[in-house]
Amino acid sequence: MTLTGPVEVVGTGLLGTSLALACTAAGLDVLLSDVSAEHVRTASGLGAGRAKQPGDRAQVVVVAVPPDHLGPVIASILTETAGTDTVVTDVGSVKAAPLAVVADHPEAARYVGSHPMAGSERSGPLAGHAALFEGRPWAITPHLGSDDAAVELVEELVRLTGAVPVWLTPDEHDRAVARTSHVPHLMAALVAGRLAEAPEAYLNLSGQGVRDVTRVAAGDPRLYAQIVTGNRDAVLDLLGEVREQLDAAITAIGSGDRGGLEEILTRGNVGTRAIPGKHGGPARPMASVWVTIADEPGQLATLFADAVETRISVEDIRIDHDPSRPVGLVELVVDETHADTLLEALAAKNWVAHR
Amino acid sequence: MTLTGPVEVVGTGLLGTSLALACTAAGLDVLLSDVSAEHVRTASGLGAGRAKQPGDRAQVVVVAVPPDHLGPVIASILTETAGTDTVVTDVGSVKAAPLAVVADHPEAARYVGSHPMAGSERSGPLAGHAALFEGRPWAITPHLGSDDAAVELVEELVRLTGAVPVWLTPDEHDRAVARTSHVPHLMAALVAGRLAEAPEAYLNLSGQGVRDVTRVAAGDPRLYAQIVTGNRDAVLDLLGEVREQLDAAITAIGSGDRGGLEEILTRGNVGTRAIPGKHGGPARPMASVWVTIADEPGQLATLFADAVETRISVEDIRIDHDPSRPVGLVELVVDETHADTLLEALAAKNWVAHR
């Protein structure tokens, strides 16, 4: 089967509208529907497609509704399209719960779940963009009864957006996101919660570390409560492990057992190295070069121009602002073997830099 | 009293050597000592100062030895300099534990603790740099018996390095770093530890969020075990709170109590906003603009040049690499009110960008 459209998008929020825009840009006919007629008008006005009319029939239906509604909406679309070869997928952030609703449906073979690792701090159709999925992992999670042809069509849709397919079963997916997303989010919220209760003066000691650890905790509490409770079992299993390790850390610190504490910290070390590196290769040892700049955008551009001349690839950048002066520290993360060369080259251009 | 030197640095590791370099650069006479004569030779060779000779007398002694040795070393220096007005400070990451060793010393008035919020993934004198403290918060933690003149001299030393003084009592300091550094580090390690045990395929779903949460867990386990156990009481108090909140989260998720979970997540929201913003002002609402670039350093520089033309100040930057293709996503964080303008300007220059 080849993806020729029409593609129907049910739910014209951030993800739905972005997908619709990507499909439209690829020349496909896109049908839009939403419980909010205004959202459909907005998405349509952005060029995401046209409002679905009675009689329109889609080749693929993408369900992009909030997690709570996924199962029932997928089931009702399978029922409406009974007897056709319309493929149904969804972009929800949990996969076992909606599948449980749909699994016994007589038309379930036409359903293949999926989940793009993309988002934004904004929501609604106006936040949509055709490039949202560009370069992002997109999990495709066929169930045991999914038709091969349906799976292939969903893969085609994923590739059309510029996303990178990652193959997992629905259960594997949920356990994976519990580990790489839901539990990290919850723990970030617990750490950030302790800051909410701190005297203001204490927070003046905040550095890049605590900012990094807590950043994701700025996400919408209602949405994340919905996502996390939707992945109840996988999240609870992992939180049980975290609690066990937390107890072990408390015991080790309380009894002055440094070896026990080091063991826990070493496991964390190993974990940071397990996250895939650039382009899927193993993570290489990185080093940071710190540069002091006057806090003006022009400085940053000049710094980059100078860094580029070295032909050393900058893997990551962070900007740390002086809490009380118009000065910023820019951290350039590069391959460890290139850090000294970069440092010397920047110093030669009169930058105040150090490793 | 005015800082005229000599400044003696005891312990020529990363912090000691960096401080010595900053003092030398400011024209002060710097005396170096270390249990390792080789470290002194290395630091001296870098221009950090000269090896301390019998008969040399310092105006300020800075103790920059590992946390375990702080108290005894400070006490023995106070004894050696009995009857002089030599001021003694230290740069250790915990403040109550060394003070407990020193508090009853008859010369304790000449001791004022301090702690610069600076470091590196490297250690030893070769990693030292005069600019290490530039723009960093540096806690100054006088005890009740500290002489005013001694406190002023330590403040002068801190300002000389370009750091920003933050005034706290030793106990406040320890409770502050437990919250902003030690507990975030431990929780990052617990999250990262779960990744160490994950099937490799799961980690392909890792996004920027989990990388941010776990980044600090890459730090040296031996050093952090020493720091954390040195701040035992403050860390245990907070870990008790974290454990209580973790239990509350587990109960809420297990019983489907979304309101309870939302409450925990909302407290995290509040906490992320409590971290001081740029230049100490309140944190302003920020927004991200995502730009897709070919993964070449030249692209980054061109993007910066284009961003600079908009005259919008870029507050933070992150680079997210496609796990399987030579493409990167650059996240430009700007004031929320400027995000659309930046987006339009970049689109006009043919960048594939979205919010």
From TrEMBL, chains A, B:
Keywords (A to Z) from UniProt: Amino-acid biosynthesis, Aromatic amino acid biosynthesis, NAD, Oxidoreductase, Tyrosine biosynthesis
Annotated InterPro entries: 6-PGluconate_DH-like_C_sf, ACT_dom, NAD(P)-bd_dom_sf, PDH_C, PDH_N, Preph/Arog_dehydrog, Prephen_DH
Enzyme class: oxidoreductase
Top-rank lineage group of the source organism: Bacteria
One Gene Ontology MF term: prephenate dehydrogenase (NAD+) activity
Pfam families documented for this protein: PDH_C (PF20463), PDH_N (PF02153)
EC numbers for this chain: 1.3.1.12
Domain called Prephenate/arogenate dehydrogenase: residue spans: 5-283
Catalytic activity entry: prephenate + NAD(+) = 3-(4-hydroxyphenyl)pyruvate + CO2 + NADH
Residues annotated as domain ACT: 288-355
Keyword Zinc set for record: no
Pathway: Amino-acid biosynthesis; L-tyrosine biosynthesis; (4-hydroxyphenyl)pyruvate from prephenate (NAD(+) route): step 1/1
Homology family: Belongs to the prephenate/arogenate dehydrogenase family.
Record's protein name: Prephenate dehydrogenase
